[in-house]
Amino acid sequence: MSDEKAQRKLPTLESLVTLCKRRGFIFQSSEIYGGYAGFFDYGPLGAELKKNIKDAWWRAMVHERDEIVGIDSTIIMHPEIWRASGHVEGFNDPMVDCRESKKRYRADQLFFSPVKVDGNVIGYVSVEESGTMQAEAGEKANELKRKQAVQGTLEAIELKEYTEASPEEYALIPSPATGKPGSLTPPRQFNLMFETQVGPLADASSKSYLRPETAQGIFQNFKNVVDTGRVKIPFGIAQIGKAFRNEITPRNFIFRSREFEQMEIEYFIDPDEETWPRVYQEWIETCKQWLYSIGIPEDMVGEDVHPQEKLSHYSKGTTDLTFTFPFGTQELWGIACRGNFDLGQHQKHSGKSMEFFDEARKEKYIPHVVEPSLGVDRTLLAVLTAAYCEDEVPNDKGVPETRTVLKFHPSIAPFKAAVFPLLKNKEELVGTARELYRKLQRRWNVAWDVGGAIGRRYRRQDEIGTPFCITIDFDTIEKDQTVTIRDRDTTEQVRIHLDEVEAWLSERIYA
Ligand code: ATP
């Protein structure tokens, strides 16, 4: 473990949710009607942060690369697309119901183990997937043994997914909700796509779907981009947009929701066997570097390489970049080598050729694809987790005080800077500050605050992650036109000339 990781104190999810609500980053959707599970709204600061993340991604993946172009396709598409892609048939999660508590679980996130004492099974325990489930199951096993007053040594708990249980075991595994066996159903497949009707007649022929991923919008436009975009293999098509999944158990705030945004690239390559392993590794590296560039620390990012036997038949390899969230290490970004499965399927179902004529090789082929797929909301949660910090700084009177600070990378911070006139009722101070504020506003989102002591204003900006606070004081207007700029993370202050502020900020925002 690196020193940084050893020292890092993760915030609780609770503290992030509370801060997000209190400062207007994220709200539960439909709150005045009691909320709506799996749906979230972004408030003024959250909308800025989200936009900055998307802009940073688009800049790095589309604008700064010659061979990647962007598109924006519709959310509702021809339903045949979802039959071709395999989503109608197979975009399922296994679901389990507890008949007694009416709680619903994903069978692949529900784990169980027989409890054995000296080789004899005395019952079963079950737990929901979490970083602490082994310990939780151990406690439940102890409890079971104590209740049954069994003597002897408890054997190690071996957790298995509920999907692997035998029909006899379904009746013996207790529901995590009630602790009692007999109420859990066997797993059933549940399709995650939201259905809708297109057109005035609600019958089978008008059935359509909200897209569960943005990727198919890219594949169905492959020919259009090839015919109009002057692209040569290798090239990529990128898209940012909403996706919808009727998740069985939306949870962990914006980590798993029913409406979310994705940033996806389909990177089309030569089908030969040498190309994909190299491009796959390059994408893994590119994706990591991008995460670091928006301020996600290296030690919070990991790699989870999917074992060969868990890959779908067409897949050559999948690696998830993981992130250490407050509730455990989980997938943030999936990088998958999908062969030519998707284009091949669309060729079959649409009857239109998806072949590409490779000028260099004088050959036609259906390109293969490497797909880096990232959730905007999950990235935002990762950014919040990494940025959240509580530390001690001296207040106006020099007394140490605990502050909450979001240490966002300046390039994605909702406000790049805040401008304060030292006093709100001194016209010359306010006028000069206002002028600077207007000037900076032409380039960035900048905050204006005249209320309360400077120390209080600093605290407010710290809590929403504004990296720089600029104060106009009497020296500015009476002496030498210099201003104070205070750094959020170090709390150190420098004085620079008014005319230099924009260049000074620019250097740090894009560092
Ligand atoms: P999981 O196994 O967690 O359900 P997945 O492997 O099905 O996810 P993908 O289909 O690979 O996810 O989706 C690509 C990316 O989209 C994920 O890495 C994640 O960042 C994001 N994503 C997927 N589902 C959700 C969701 N319900 N809420 C928020 N983001 C999501």
Question: What does this entry show, briefly?
Answer:
The chain has 511 residues and is of the alpha+beta class. Helices cover 31% and strands 29% of the residues. The chain has three domains: 276 residues, BirA Bifunctional Protein, domain 2 (2-Layer Sandwich); 97 residues, no CATH class; 95 residues, Anticodon-binding domain (Rossmann fold, 3-Layer(aba) Sandwich), CATH 3.40.50.800.
Task: Compile the SSE list and pairings.
Elements: H1 3-7, H2 13-22, E1 26-28, E2 40-42, H3 44-63, E3 68-71, H4 80-84, H5 87-90, E4 92-97, E5 104-106, E6 110-117, E7 120-128, H6 133-148, E8 160-161, H7 167-170, E9 188-191, E10 195-197, E11 207-209, H8 215-219, H9 222-229, E12 235-244, E13 259-269, H10 275-293, E14 301-305, E15 317-325, E16 328-339, H11 341-350, E17 356-358, E18 363-365, E19 368-375, H12 376-387, E20 388-394, E21 400-406, E22 417-421, H13 427-441, E23 446-448, H14 454-464, E24 468-472, H15 474-480, E25 482-487, E26 493-497, H16 501-509
Parallel strand pairs: 3-12, 22-23, 22-24
Antiparallel strand pairs: 1-2, 4-5, 4-9, 6-7, 6-8, 10-11, 12-13, 13-19, 14-15, 15-16, 16-19, 17-18, 20-21, 24-25, 25-26
Helix pairs in contact: 3-12
The structure holds adenosine-5'-triphosphate.
Task: Please characterize this protein's 3D structure.
With 511 residues, the chain is an alpha+beta fold. It folds into three domains: 276 residues, BirA Bifunctional Protein, domain 2 (2-Layer Sandwich), CATH 3.30.930.10; 97 residues, no CATH class; 95 residues, 3-Layer(aba) Sandwich (Rossmann fold), CATH 3.40.50.800. 31% of the residues lie in helices and 29% in strands. The protein is built from 16 helices and 26 strands. The strands form eight sheets. It has a seven-stranded mixed beta sheet, sandwiched between helices. Strands 23-22-24-25-26 form a five-stranded mixed beta sheet, sandwiched between helices. Strand 20 and strand 21 form a beta hairpin. The longest helix has 20 residues. The mean pLDDT is 95. Bound molecules: adenosine-5'-triphosphate. Adenosine-5'-triphosphate binds next to strand 13, strand 16, strand 19 and helix 12.
